[in-house]
TrEMBL record:
Keywords assigned: ATP-binding, Cell inner membrane, Cell membrane, Coiled coil, Kinase, Membrane, Nucleotide-binding, Transferase, Transmembrane, Transmembrane helix, Tyrosine-protein kinase
Protein name, UniProt field: non-specific protein-tyrosine kinase
Organism: Hymenobacter oligotrophus
Family the UniProt entry places it in: Belongs to the etk/wzc family. Belongs to the CpsD/CapB family.
Catalytic activity: L-tyrosyl-[protein] + ATP = O-phospho-L-tyrosyl-[protein] + ADP + H(+)
EC number: 2.7.10.2
GO CC term (a single one): plasma membrane
Domain Polysaccharide chain length determinant N-terminal: 30-119
InterPro entries linked: AAA_dom (IPR025669), Bact_polysacc_biosynth/exp (IPR050445), GNVR (IPR032807), LPS_length_determ_N (IPR003856), P-loop_NTPase (IPR027417), Wzc-like_C (IPR005702)
Coiled-coil features, chain-numbered ranges: 284-348, 423-450
Taxonomic lineage: Bacteria, Pseudomonadati, Bacteroidota, Cytophagia, Cytophagales
Major site of localization recorded for this protein: membrane
Alphabetized Pfam families for the sequence: AAA_31, GNVR, Wzz
TM region(s), chain numbering: 43-61, 514-538
Length: 816
């Protein structure tokens, strides 16, 4: 018989495994009811997260100093007015290109240490004045009741807080820390204090210090001030075509941000004007220096050239060569002329000596003697003509007289005298020609010597002319540049326009309250939705009747609400103590539903199991048995969970004997039956734990025990072991009339419902029903009563549990 039972169990398990692949999966569609349940349960946390987000935003705004930004716009341009002067544009397109501003260079100039240093000095940014608030410290800037002047050598006072407590309007106390030790120094207004080798003077302003206010000041070094300016200053090119630059500054004090931007604008304009003025002065100074130097050099070259001209009596050697050549040619011509005259004199002398002066009839003396024309001597021509006449007269006289006659002799004497006169004239002319020829020879030699010296003079003159021309050209060029620069200076004016000066910012750029609150609210809502999403995705337990119905094919027999009246360490019989409680009415509803499954006139065998331990099958078995017993039916509860017996604990009884001892035939059934507080309710405990519980259940003695109990009792309730841990309960469920499967809300996993579906579809447990245990009050609980008679018509028929007191408890009850 035991072998047949084992074969039946193996066949049951094999059939369940063979149908596992064909089992329909639990409905995986989006469960809106579960989502609403998760949202309802998470609503307090969502509200809390939203409140935390808004609170965090408020705290951020409370503990974050606002940042203000002030901005201005500069237009950098260059206007040329030379056309108005009628001089035209100096330099043309090249000058226009040169005058176009390199905006990137202007940006770097504004962000340079030149502007930083002047800004630091003009606004006295080295000293910051503050007042301590309850949360944050505020910079007073110009609204300070005191001013500080300092002088330090080693920088001990730099970048540290120095507190000043005003005792009265004239006396104060300075506090600072040295080596983590607080130091105190008493001081007086307008007097100098010596602190650690540094001097500090405190001066009052037109604002009186307030009593109880903690003032302090900080002396910053240059690096800190420049770093502060560079970190908060923004200079950017707005429109390159319009030559516009935007300057903005961020600070916690709006007035300080505005003053810094306006001061930067002013300092930049001053720096540009000073730079242009300095460039003009330097250019003019350079031109003047170059002009003076060139003037001196030009004067030296002029003196050297003048000395050359004075020494050589010439300024143009090449023209001197031509002049000398021309003069030598003229001398040559003159020599030829003199030689002709000498020839003419010789010819005349020969004619005079040969008495061949007589002219023929009709001829003049010049025609007879052509040489006289060359000589161009009127006296000689006259004497020769006289000689010619006297010769002719002598010849006529000789024709009539003899040569010894007085008349002839007188004529001869006259003729000789004239011939001698002509001879003297010819001699004089000859001497004159010789002297003229000698002079010509001298001049010829002089010109030749001068001509030989001309190349050396030409070289010297070229050497002297080169620096003269160079200095003269440079001097003229510098003069032109000076005039040109003066015209450009007079015609070009720098044009700097502040298109939009800095104004006092009224609203901070950071943090923006609306945005911060919106972020905090969005963060709270996002975290709340994230919490809902996480809880929904991680929600893998059965929490409501709807989930049980949608995930299981077995019908729901009823719902057992949570028992919150007392904390039960073990399962107990409570329906007899609270017959009108909600949980009693719920179990009565289950009892009523059992009537539809198995009428009370028949003997009923009921098994109660679950997937794992802790789902409340013992609690339901004990109290369901109690409710049925209270209806005047004889009920016995059998504890078959021999590994972890609990029924005896529910009735506070011993477990020395029971099912295990009955199956091994050590005790009889009657010996193991134990009574309870309800007369019609008995139970049999599991007995001592055997080493082989599964084999004992398969023993034929187990069937005989059930038959004996069915003969004695109307209802037999079997508390079986969890079917998810051992297979004992599966075989027991085959033997009963009504198998009940317990699912605990918020404890049983949704995957456990697959076990129920396997039992119904794969193993053929068509009568298997489920009970949702430990259901929270609300929709699931109320919905469960609709299955039975108890709650639907029992409003007011059971005792309401007292509502929890306190706001937190009421909220928990509201949103649970």
């Amino acid at each position: 018989m035991a072998i047949d039972k084992e074969a039946e169990l193996e066949e049951l398990i094999r059939s369940a495994g063979s149908t596992e692949g064909q089992e329909e999966e639990t409905d995986t569609a989006f469960d809106i009811s579960t989502l609403l349940m998760v949202v309802r349960r998470s609503l307090p946390w969502m509200i809390l997260l939203v409140l935390l987000g808004v609170t965090a935003a408020w705290l951020y705004l409370r503990y974050t100093q606002p940042i203000y930004q002030s901005s201005s716009t500069l237009k950098i341009d260059q206007k040329t007015q030379t056309a108005v002067l009628g001089l035209g544009a100096v330099g043309g397109a090249a000058e226009a290109q040169q005058n176009s501003k390199n905006l990137a260079g202007e940006v770097e100039l504004i962000k340079s240490n030149i502007i930083y240093r002047k800004l630091q000095d003009s606004l006295n940014l080295n000293v910051g004045y503050f007042v301590e608030g309850t949360v944050l410290a505020n910079e007073l800037y110009t609204d300070t009741p005191f001013r500080v002047q300092y002088s330090t050598k080693d920088g001990f006072l730099f970048n540290k807080k120095i507190y000043i407590n005003f005792i009265d309007e004239q006396h104060f106390l300075l506090l600072y820390r040295k080596n983590d030790v607080e130091q105190k120094v008493n001081g007086k207004i307008n007097q100098t204090l010596n602190i650690e080798g540094s001097s500090i003077s405190v001066y009052s302003t037109n604002k009186s210090p307030q009593a109880g206010v903690n003032y302090y000041f900080v002396i910053h070094d240059d690096a800190t001030v420049w770093g502060y300016i560079g970190e908060n200053l923004t200079v950017e090119i707005i429109n390159p075509e319009a030559n516009t630059i935007g300057i903005s500054f961020k600070d916690h004090n709006p007035g300080k941000a505005r003053d810094i931007v306006n001061k930067i604008d002013t300092l930049y304009l001053q720096e540009k004007l000073a730079k242009n003025s300095l460039a003009t002065q330097q250019t003019l100074a350079f031109l003047e220096g170059q002009l003076d130097e060139n003037r001196n050099k030009l004067q030296g070259a002029e003196v050297a050239l003048q000395e050359f001209v004075r020494r050589n009596k010439t300024y143009d050697v090449k023209s001197d060569v031509a002049n000398i050549a021309e003069k030598m040619a003229a001398l040559q011509e003159e020599r030829v002329e003199l030689q002709r005259k000498a020839g003419a004199l010789a010819e005349v002398a020969s004619l005079v000596q040969q008495n061949r002066v007589l002219t023929r009839e009709g001829e003049t003396i010049e025609q007879s003697i052509p040489a006289l024309t060359v000589l161009e001597d009127a006296q000689l021509s006259q004497q020769i003509a006289l000689l010619n006449d006297q010769q002719a007269d002598l010849n006529r006289v000789l024709e009539s007289y003899k040569s010894t006659t007085t008349a002839v002799q007188i004529k001869q004497e006259q003729l000789d005298y004239t011939r001698r006169s002509i001879g003297r004239l010819l001699q004089q002319a000859r001497q004159l020609l010789q002297s003229e020829l000698a002079e010509l020879d001298r001049q010829q030699r002089e010109f030749e010597s001068r001509l030989q010296l001309l190349p050396e003079k030409e070289t010297e003159l070229a050497r002297l002319r080169r620096p003269f021309e160079l200095y003269e050209k440079s001097y003229l060029m510098l003069m032109d540049k000076k005039v040109e620069f003066s015209i450009q200076k007079a015609g070009t004016t720098p044009d700097f326009q502040i298109l939009s000066p800095a104004s006092l910012p009224t609203a901070p750029i950071s943090p923006i309250k609306i945005m911060v609150y919106a972020i905090g609210l969005a963060a709270g809502i996002g975290l709340g939705l994230g919490l809902v999403a996480v809880r929904f995705l991680l929600h893998n337990s059965v929490s409501s009747l709807r989930e049980l119905e949608s995930g299981s094919v077995a019908p729901v027999l009823g719902v057992v609400p949570s028992y919150d009246k007392e904390k039960l360490t073990v399962s107990k019989l409570i329906v007899d103590k609270n017959p009108k409680s909600a949980i009693s009415e719920a179990i009565r509803s289950i009892r009523t539903n059992l009537e539809f499954l198995a009428p009370s006139r028949h003997k009923r065998l009921i098994s109660i199991t679950s997937t794992i331990s802790g789902e409340g099958k013992t609690f339901v078995a004990v109290n369901l048995g109690g409710i049925i017993a209270l209806s005047d039916q004889r009920v016995v509860i059998i504890d078959l969970d021999m590994r972890k017996p609990k029924v005896n604990l529910a009735f506070e009884a011993e477990n020395t004997k029971g099912v295990s001892t009955i199956l091994i035939e050590r005790h009889t059934v009657q010996e193991c039956i134990q009574r309870t507080s309800i007369p019609t309710l008995d139970f049999i405990s599991a007995g001592p734990t055997p080493p082989n519980p599964s084999e004992l259940i398969l023993h034929p003695q187990f069937d005989r025990m059930l038959e004996e109990l069915k003969q004695q009792y109307d209802v037999v309730i079997i508390d079986t072991p969890p079917v998810g841990l051992v297979t004992d309960g599966v075989l027991i469920m085959r033997k009963v009339d009504i198998p009940i499967y317990i699912v605990r809300a918020g404890y049983s996993k949704k995957t456990f419902l697959k076990n129920i579906n396997k039992l119904v579809r794969g193993s053929g447990f068509t009568k298997l029903t489920t009970i949702l245990n430990d259901a929270q009050s609300g929709g699931a609980y109320g919905y469960g009563y609709g299955y039975g008679y108890g709650y639907g018509t029992g409003y007011g028929y059971y005792e309401e549990e007292k509502a929890p007191k306190g706001l937190l408890a009421r909220l928990r009850r509201r949103f649970s």
